[in-house]
């Protein structure tokens, strides 16, 4: 936190001690009262207030707000490394998630989303393709769609999943999720679907890739390269954010009917307890 370096000229030893304490404990200082901070530094609340004013703030509260802003500025594009404390890890991951979702929103075409929602709603069968991290998104979407009574096909066995598309018809749709856009287990069935007049939808990272040239509709998610990559976490969260949008938009028009389905599902699953 260089803006609050304890080497600022014109400070008393007590004030320098406070700044050094903040430097060493800046994660937790934001929740401290002025009384608690003063006690931890063996000084008075008046000294803490005087320090805040010397640094250009009208009071201790505004000083803490600037400390918080500075902390997030430093963590905004920070990489996660093995040297991070748990406190830093919490902040970096939370910020990474929030930032990447905001970037995903900026890439979203709402009109295209509405059109795809109708395709999913009206499809006889929905085929999902994805492996690895993308496969977890497919599994989540699969369970949501099946709970709505939609005929959806997905299995984690990519060979069985690829073979399933052979029996598809033009009234069906195929959705492929691939962060790289180059996953063979996703591309092969999507190509087959496209060649047999199915509407095809992709969720993939920004940039050019084979999946973009195959699909009728492409939803983009941002790409992140980091030292200890949270890229797989971000791509999963962003992809699931998009499938959740599709799911929520689908159920908007059928709330009363779905309430009955969800209540029946709850009653049925309660029998397993």
Automatic annotation (TrEMBL):
Pfam (any one): SIS
InterPro entries for this protein: Homeodomain-like_sf, HTH_RpiR, RpiR-like, RpiR-like_SIS, SIS_dom, SIS_dom_sf, WH-like_DNA-bd_sf
Entry keyword annotation includes DNA-binding: yes
Residues covered by the HTH rpiR-type domain: 1-74
GO function terms (MF aspect): carbohydrate derivative binding; DNA binding; DNA-binding transcription factor activity
Keyword Isomerase: no
Highest taxon, organism lineage: Bacteria
Annotated ranges, domain SIS: 116-256
Keywords per UniProt: DNA-binding, Transcription, Transcription regulation
Biological process per Gene Ontology, one example term: carbohydrate derivative metabolic process
Protein name: RpiR family transcriptional regulator
Organism of origin: Streptococcus cuniculi
